[in-house]
C-alpha cells in the first residue's frame, strides 16, 4: 500500500534474521537492518526519517514502551510517527503503559497527537478468550503523532 501511494524509500528493522529475510524477499525495502527495539539503538542518526511506523510489535512481551523515545529520536522535526497496539485482554496492561508514555512525551512538548483511533476488527484472535466481540477478531488502536518542530524545553 505504501508503494502504491508513492512511498518507495522504505527502511526496515527487525530483531529476527528470518523476518528480515522474508522482508528482503518482498523487494519493498531499500534497506533492512537487524535491531532489537528497546535493546539496541536504531541504526540511524537523529532526525533522519520523515515518518516512522511500528505495526505489530508494540505489545506485551515484545517491544518495551521505553523504545518510543528511540523512535522519536530518529524522526525529523515535523515528521510523523504511526504506532499500533492491540486492545485484547492480554495486552491491556501494556496498552495502558504505552498510552502513559505517549502522554508524557506529549506533555513535555516532544510531539502532538494527530490521531488515536480504535479499530474494532484489528486482527484475527488466536483464541475465543481474546475475541472480545465474539466475532473472531481482537481490537486495536492506531496512534499518529507529529514531532514538534521546536525542541522541547529541558526540565530543571
From TrEMBL:
Pfam families listed in its UniProt record: Methyltransf_11
- Spell out the SUPFAM superfamilies in the cross-references: S-adenosyl-L-methionine-dependent methyltransferases
Q: Which residues form the Methyltransferase type domain?
A: 3-82
**Xref: Gene3D superfamilies:** Vaccinia Virus protein VP39
MF annotations from Gene Ontology = S-adenosylmethionine-dependent methyltransferase activity
Signal peptide range in chain numbering? none
Name recorded for this polypeptide: MET27 protein
Its source organism is Thinocorus orbignyianus
Gene symbol of the encoding locus: Mettl27
Amino acid at each position: 500500500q505504501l508503494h502504491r501511494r508513492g512511498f518507495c524509500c522504505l527502511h526496515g528493522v527487525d530483531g529476527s534474521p528470518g523476518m528480515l529475510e522474508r522482508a528482503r524477499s518482498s523487494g519493498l525495502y531499500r534497506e533492512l537492518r537487524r535491531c532489537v527495539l528497546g535493546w539496541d539503538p536504531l541504526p540511524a542518526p537523529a532526525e533522519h526519517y520523515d515518518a516512522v511506523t511500528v505495526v505489530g510489535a508494540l505489545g506485551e512481551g515484545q517491544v518495551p514502551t521505553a523504545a518510543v523515545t528511540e523512535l522519536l529520536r530518529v524522526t525529523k522535526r515535523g515528521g510523523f510517527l504511526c504506532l499500533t497496539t492491540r486492545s485484547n485482554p492480554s495486552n491491556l496492561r501494556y496498552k495502558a503503559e504505552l498510552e502513559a508514555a505517549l502522554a508524557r512525551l506529549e506533555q513535555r512538548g516532544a510531539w502532538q497527537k494527530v490521531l488515536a483511533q480504535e479499530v474494532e476488527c484489528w486482527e484475527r484472535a488466536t483464541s475465543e478468550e481474546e475475541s472480545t466481540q465474539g466475532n473472531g477478531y481482537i481490537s486495536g488502536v492506531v496512534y499518529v503523532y507529529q514531532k514538534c518542530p521546536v525542541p522541547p524545553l529541558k526540565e530543571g
